[in-house]
Design goal:
4-stranded antiparallel β-sheet; mainly beta; 153 residues
Length: 153
């Protein structure tokens, strides 16, 4: 029995991880424009396709139907840098686009579908909020989710 448990533990430890997610929390639930969180992740498999999501969590008291973010991706060894601006539509006039838990709402917004990372190594993803309100109130955290395109969410 002990040998079976050890074997199962070793096999589970060798399993390929299909999802990476990391979120950065904001002090006092406010995101000043001067704070530019960075999420770093490592890509080893350059043959697979990945879906890339921005994760945005806010309180029900968040004042806007959207959020504008500028995101910069820096490749391994600073080999390349790409900056893009995104508008995340969070709500309609009828309410938030996702269901919440109590007064907290989390949006996972697909920004790149079936993308390929051509170089193995560590990537850095920097977030900037570019809204008119500064600091941006009632924002709990922002983050990044990388998921193998052939895996289920």
């Amino acid at each position: 029995m002990f040998l079976a448990l050890v074997t199962i533990s070793l096999l589970a430890g060798c399993a390929k991880v299909d999802v990476f997610e990391k979120n950065i929390a904001f002090k006092d639930h406010a995101w000043p424009s001067s704070v530019k969180p960075v999420v770093s992740f490592n890509i080893e498999d350059t043959n697979s396709l990945y879906n890339v999501y921005i994760v945005f969590r806010h309180a029900d008291a968040y004042s806007f139907n959207n959020v504008w973010l500028r995101c910069t991706v820096t490749g391994p060894g600073n080999t390349g840098k790409k900056t893009q601006q995104y508008e995340l539509n969070l709500a309609t006039n009828n309410g938030w686009n996702v269901s919440g838990m109590d007064d907290i709402f989390e949006h996972r917004v697909l920004i790149q579908q079936k993308t390929k990372f051509n170089v193995a190594g560590e990537y850095h993803f920097t977030f900037e909020q570019v809204m008119r309100e500064d600091p941006l109130e009632n924002v709990l955290n922002v983050g990044l989710r990388i998921q193998r395109a052939d895996s289920t969410p």
